[in-house]
Amino acid sequence: MADGTISLDGRPVPFDKGDTVIKAAYKAGIDIPHYCWHPGLSAPANCRMCLVEIEPPPGRPAMTLDVLKWDAEKNDYAPAKKLKLQPACQQPCADGMSVKSDTSAEVAAARSAVQELLLLNHPVDCPICDQAGECTLQDYWLEHQSTKKRMTEEPVHKPKGVVFGDTIVYDGERCIMCTRCIRVSDEVAKDPVLDMRERGNRNEIVVSPGRKLDHNYSLMTEHVCPVVALTSSHFRFKARVWFLRSVQSVCQGCATGCSAHLDYDPRDNTAYRYRPRDNDAINGYWMCDAGMLSYPEAHENRLARARVRGKDADLLQAIDEAKKLLAKHAADPSRIAIVLGAQHSSEDNQALARIAKTHLAATRFYVSRRPNGKADGVLMVEDKNSNAAGVAGVMRALGLGEAGSLAALLDDVAADRIDFVIGLGAEVDCDAERATDLLSRVKGFVAIATHEGPLTRAAHVALPAASWAECASTYVNQGGIAQTTEPALSPRGDAHPGWQIVISLARALGYDIGWKKRADLKPVEATP
After folding, report:
1. Closest Cα partner for 422 from 522, 355, 496?
2. In angstroms, rounded to a whole number, what is the distance separating the alpha carbons of residues 454 and 437?
3. Domains 4-119 and 162-298 share a fold
4. What angle do CA 188, 193, 195 make, to 5 degrees?
């Protein structure tokens, strides 16, 4: 329940304790123009674009300024008073406060002046600027200024194309000194590598001497930049944003499962960038560099064609070959190994696990996964698999206990306890050469995978699965929160959603399971 209500341009806006005016407006979906403020960062109030007129609650004195105003009758300036404009990003809300943003002539004049000041030395880079099409500087000029540039002197020139690190390039002439990038480094990455030098219109952002911008959240400095003074070397000049489309997605980089927007161009079926999607329960407003740069996995190193014993094959022919390989599986179900995939969706895993339990009577379950990596105490965790919790949830829901490791599977194969393997995924968290060698020796190994890897190289039949970017899929993060990706790209080659491949294989083996669409699977969700 809200702690109080303010009036914003005559509209009641609830607020919680500690909210500033701009934060309350932001939560209510109302835009108060701003540059330096960001909901996930401290508020320095240095851009002055969010100035508002505030009438205090009854009983509190108003903050006023002595000014001179033109008196037409006297044909001269006369002393007057006006309310002192306040930055909405630092003004705490108080119950009953009346705020004017879009309905105040004084505010409109102030914003126009601020906008003009910011553009005095700004280069006319719009035709070649990556921010064109999503630039608040352009939008606010139209909304709050719309006047021609009055300064006729040569603008101040600053460094352009400065390489800050492996991911970021800086253009000082575009910078409006909002300091968001500095605060991201200080407050999010905990690495104060950026600072501001000089004063006035000669201000510029610099990297600490002897350092480069190389922390795990360097791309967040570019993401929060309102005027693309900072550009990503990976996205720079790669695409025009008005050609891009966006879907809600989930980062596949680790078990945090950051909520993300995946931006893609439908004309060439290519993903061009990730952007964090606000989610207070998971990643707030941020993503790490490794996650931001994982979008090429949607089309790189893909298993796009079915393979039979190392040679490309038609998908239906490959499924028929898989049926022949697995024809003798019913002789001894205890010698069948089912490998679930921590990088595959809950739908893929549930389809395979349910068929294995109900129709194959399999009792040996394992899980393929990426090896652990580094954690940073912010968003990155050691588990680099997007759905390990989803696999565990599927196993619990079906009463299958806990899946064994891939290393345990290799030991069972080496001990001649396994004849047939059906698996999801391509990556291993153990000795890749040993995995490829041992699994290639079993009587039948069918791998369903999105990418190439040790398991697809070992498989007698490899079947291509669609990636998270190509179909609606559910992923459960380490906290037990389930999220669903939206399809963006068309599947590569012959790829189909993994659960559809599993169903086709089951039908080829003679099992009528009755599933026709994703909703039939009703994927289970893990709990923390």
Report:
1. 355
2. 9
3. no
4. 100
Q: For residue 414, what are the CA distances in angstroms to 227, 410, 442?
A: 59, 6, 10
Note the CATH number of domain 4-119: 3.10.20.740
Return d(Cα 483, Cα 207) in angstroms, integer. 37
Instruction: Answer yes or no: are the C-beta atoms of 170 and 162 closer than 8 Å.
Output: yes
Looking at residue 366, its amino acid is Y
Query: What are the pLDDT tens digits along the chain (528 aa)?
Result: 788 999 999 999 999 999 999 999 999 999 999 999 999 999 999 999 999 999 876 777 778 888 888 888 889 999 988 889 999 999 999 888 899 999 999 999 999 999 999 988 888 888 888 888 888 888 888 888 878 888 888 889 999 999 999 999 999 999 999 999 999 999 999 999 999 999 888 999 999 999 999 999 999 999 999 998 999 999 999 999 999 999 999 999 999 999 999 999 999 999 999 999 999 999 999 999 999 999 999 999 999 999 999 999 999 999 999 999 888 776 788 999 999 999 999 999 999 999 999 999 999 999 999 999 999 999 999 999 999 999 999 999 999 999 999 999 999 999 999 999 999 999 999 999 999 999 999 999 999 999 999 999 999 999 999 999 999 999 999 999 999 999 999 999 999 999 999 999 999 988 877 777 887 776 655 444
Q: Please give the CATH number for the structural domain made up of 162-298.
A: 3.30.70
CATH of 306-521, one of 3.40.50.150, 3.40.50.2300, 3.50.30.40, 3.40.50.740: 3.40.50.740
Helix 498-508 to helix 315-325 angle, to the nearest 10 degrees?
50
Closest to 341 (Cα-Cα) out of 293, 403, 401: 403
pTM: 0.90
Burial environment of residue 256 by CB neighbours within 10 A (0 to 12, 13 to 18, 19 or more): buried
Count of C-beta atoms within a 10 Å radius of residue 295: 26
- Cross-sheet strand order for the sheet of 230-232: 162-163, 168-170, 230-232
